[in-house]
Amino acid sequence: MNELEPSAAIEEALRGNGISVESLSLDETVSVTYLTAFPDVKPDHGEVGRAVTAFLELASEDWDPVTVEATILRSEGDVQATWRLEDEWIRAYDSYTLDDEELSSRVLDTLYEEEGDA
Length: 118
Description:
By secondary structure, this protein is of the alpha+beta class. It is 38% helix and 26% strand. The longest helix has 16 residues, at 45-60. It starts with 5 loop residues before the first helix and ends in a 5-residue tail after the last strand. The model has no long low-confidence stretch (mean pLDDT 91).
């Protein structure tokens, strides 16, 4: 990871992948809330993938992975969906025991879409 504080480095990596971070906290897990560029009823899987890619890139740069809990907003206060990326999935991917397809499938299986109108 770069020389920034861990939370700043995570936010920079997400923004570098086109993710508009609204809030981020780092404790036992990373909790991130971001504003989607695709405020439709369903979350954009490509955008989720770009967020996941940011965490995979950090792991390849000596970041010690923790579980990621993400919330996607359509607009302030309007939750579109949530998703999770488990720390063991990041480690397995980084050690080549989990491929792109399986990782994507696991993350998308955690995707919870909020009820409501877009």
